[in-house]
């Protein structure tokens, strides 16, 4: 479905900029239909709106060069990481140039003594962790896709570990970015904390490429814990699972991961990942600490779960079993799609204060039943964050309409509970109306910031806010 937008194309400017970039970048500039389409939105229900050209950059200076050409000719710029975003973030409603940062994938420095590293934006989270393997350190943010760190910063991503280690907003120490006029700025130094001026790092984190192009990031790292254990526990119903999560977090057990999968999602994971867990609402868990600490945490959790009817709680410190469990969790999206072959997932996420989690998930399940949709639920529930993937035939307008209704109801319910229409996927094109509902007058302040930094509205126009 195409999203209506009042943005118009600057045909002459685009043609001129494309000519300049083609000459300057040669084979690293493409206008092929396949490449352009792959750089628009490809993951969900939102119709692909490709850019006019794609430039594959190698350095901050090259990004600045491209931005200056586009600024001079009033041409939109859409930064591209790995293309895994879910809300139409990469579409080019007014055309323009996609800057593909995937070849900027060097790990520039690791400072084990300071627990940080410096990377280019095209490094993916898996590549960083492979590089860190022998250092005793790791980078904890793990969205389901192997996304780029520049893209993850730009969507303020999180994942299964956020309950313990925070989201991208907590783990980026500074950024280098090319601003809409081509200026190159570094937002902070490498110190762990600073009260020096406006927090430009956090302004750019979550900006979805609408304020500048990130070309370098300094990230916090964590020490790999002495012991890690993982567990699985099934429940009679989703409320019992959610209430266990609430009690566990309130009791102060420092959960590293606590993930909910509903009955349908468990059926999908069992089939897709060749597991044989009970087909019931289930929590996947992970505990980090000393050997004695993880044992104690697991036992405490087991006691709480039992109070809420949790059964079959088993836990292991065995590396291979843990890896299998979390691979299944990370494959949950693909497992869900395989429940109804030929369909695509209309994926949405919401986040509420933890005390409202059970109510919000129950209300969502009632909506799914009422609308007659097949829509498994998974969630990083330790944060009050959950995802729903409605499996629909994208060519069937009635199904699409129902999925949109579901997404609208989930957002409205979460906002009504003092929560948010997106805990981690971002706004892009798809959730702009919900952002209006959620923050109302604050959007005028966002518009003022956007106009001040990007007066020509060339940085990823049509995303987050309508100007
Ligand atoms: C199977 C699956 C599971 C997922 N699970 C999660 C999850 O658990 N948690 C979660 O948070 N998300 C999840 N996502 C969504 C997605 O992976 C994240 O939004 C991710 O952060 C996007 O990174 P990317 O590199 O793919 O960025 P892209 O999709 O390429 O870009 C995303 C946005 O960031 C901008 N951007 C990209 N790079 C830069 C840059 N260097 N400078 C400025 N702007 C830039 C783009 O213009 C765009 O607006 C999932 C997606 C899929 C397909």
What is the number of domains? Answer: 3
CATH homologous superfamily designation of the largest domain: FAD-linked oxidases, C-terminal domain
Shape: globular
Low-confidence stretches: none
CATH topology description of the largest domain: Vanillyl-alcohol Oxidase, Chain A, domain 3
Using DSSP, what is the number of strands? Answer: 18
Q: Can you tell me the CATH class of the largest domain? A: Alpha Beta
What is the CATH architecture assignment of the largest domain?
A: 3-Layer(aba) Sandwich
Strand content: 15-25%
Main pleated-sheet profile: 7 strands, antiparallel
Which structural class do the helices and strands define?
A: alpha+beta
Hetero compounds: flavin-adenine dinucleotide
Average pLDDT figure = 96
Strand order, sheet with most strands: 15-12-14-13-17-18-16
Offer a concise description of the structure.
The chain contains 17 helices and 18 strands. It has 467 residues and is α+β, with helices and mostly antiparallel strands.
Folded structure, characterized:
- GO terms for molecular function: D-lactate dehydrogenase (cytochrome) activity; D-lactate dehydrogenase (NAD+) activity; FAD binding.
- Its cofactor is FAD.
- Belongs to the FAD-binding oxidoreductase/transferase type 4 family.
- Its EC number is 1.1.2.4.
- InterPro entries: FAD-bd_oxidored_4_C, FAD-bd_PCMH, FAD-bd_PCMH-like_sf, FAD-bd_PCMH_sub2, FAD-linked_Oxase-like_C, Oxid_FAD_bind_N, Vanillyl_alc_oxidase_C-sub2.
- There is one protein chain.
- The chain is of the alpha+beta class and 467 residues long.
- The protein folds into three domains: 11-102 and 448-453, Uridine Diphospho-n-acetylenolpyruvylglucosamine Reductase, domain 2 (2-Layer Sandwich), CATH 3.30.43; 107-223, Uridine Diphospho-n-acetylenolpyruvylglucosamine Reductase, domain 3, CATH 3.30.465; 226-425, FAD-linked oxidases, C-terminal domain (Vanillyl-alcohol Oxidase, Chain A, domain 3), CATH 3.40.462.
- It is built from 17 helices and 18 strands.
- It has helices spanning 11-25, 33-38, 60-72, 125-132, 149-155, 162-165, 168-171, 200-204, 238-250, 263-273, 291-307, 319-330, 332-337, 357-371, 397-416, 432-439, 442-453; strands at 29-30, 53-56, 77-80, 97-100, 107-111, 116-119, 137-138, 172-178, 184-186, 213-220, 222-223, 227-234, 255-261, 282-289, 311-316, 344-351, 377-380, 385-392.
- The strands form four sheets. It has a seven-stranded antiparallel β-sheet, with helices on both faces. It has a five-stranded antiparallel β-sheet with strand order 5-6-10-8-9. The chain has a four-stranded mixed β-sheet with strand order 1-2-4-3, with helices on one face.
- β5 and β6 (116-119) form a beta hairpin.
- α14 packs antiparallel against α15.
- The mean pLDDT is 96.
- Flavin-adenine dinucleotide (FAD) binds next to β3, α5 and β10.
């Amino acid at each position: 479905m195409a999203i209506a937008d009042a943005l118009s194309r600057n045909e002459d400017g685009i043609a001129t900029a494309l000519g300049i970039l083609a000459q300057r970048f040669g084979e690293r500039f493409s206008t092929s239909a396949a490449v352009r389409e792959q750089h628009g939105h490809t993951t969900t229900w939102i119709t692909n709106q490709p850019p006019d050209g794609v430039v594959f950059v190698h350095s901050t200076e090259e990004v600045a060069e491209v931005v200056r050409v586009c600024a001079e000719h009033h041409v939109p710029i859409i930064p591209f990481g790995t293309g895994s975003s879910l809300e139409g973030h990469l579409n080019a409603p007014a055309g323009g140039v996609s800057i593909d940062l995937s070849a900027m994938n060097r790990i520039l420095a690791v400072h084990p003594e300071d627990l940080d590293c410096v990377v280019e934006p095209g490094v993916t989270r898996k590549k960083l962790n492979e590089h860190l393997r022998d250092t005793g350190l790791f980078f904890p943010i793990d969205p389901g896709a192997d996304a780029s760190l520049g893209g993850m910063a730009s969507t303020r991503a999180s994942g299964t570990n956020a309950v313990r280690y925070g989201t991208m907003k907590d783990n980026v120490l500074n950024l280098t970015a090319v601003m809409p006029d081509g200026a190159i700025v570094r937002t902070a130094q490498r110190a762990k904390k600073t009260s020096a001026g406006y927090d430009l790092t956090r302004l750019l984190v979550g900006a979805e490429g609408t304020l500048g192009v990130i070309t370098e990031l300094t990230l916090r790292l964590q020490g790999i814990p002495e012991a890690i254990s993982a567990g699985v526990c099934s429940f009679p119903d989703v409320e019992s699972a959610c209430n266990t999560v609430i009690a566990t977090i309130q009791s102060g057990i420092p959960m590293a991961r606590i993930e909910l999968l509903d009955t349908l999602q468990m059926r999908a994971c069992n089939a897709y990942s060749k597991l044989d867990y009970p087909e019931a609402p289930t929590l996947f868990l992970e505990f980090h600490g000393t050997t004695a600490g993880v044992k104690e945490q697991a036992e405490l959790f087991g006691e709480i779960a039992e109070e809420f009817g949790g059964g079959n709680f088993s836990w292991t410190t065995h590396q291979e079993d843990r890896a299998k469990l979390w691979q299944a969790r990370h494959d949950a999206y693909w497992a869900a799609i395989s429940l109804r072959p030929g369909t695509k997932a209309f994926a949405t996420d919401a986040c509420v204060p933890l005390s409202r989690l059970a109510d919000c998930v129950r209300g969502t399940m009632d909506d799914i039943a009422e609308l007659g949709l097949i829509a498994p639920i998974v969630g990083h529930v330790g944060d009050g964050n959950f995802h729903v993937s409605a499996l629909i035939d994208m060519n069937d307008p009635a199904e699409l309409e129902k999925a949109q209704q579901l997404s609208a109801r989930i957002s409205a319910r979460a906002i009504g509970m003092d929560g948010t229409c997106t805990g981690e996927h971002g706004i892009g094109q798809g959730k702009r109306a919900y952002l209006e509902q959620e923050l109302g007058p604050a959007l005028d302040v966002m518009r003022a910031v956007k106009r001040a930094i990007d007066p020509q509205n060339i940085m990823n126009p049509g995303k987050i806010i309508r100007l």
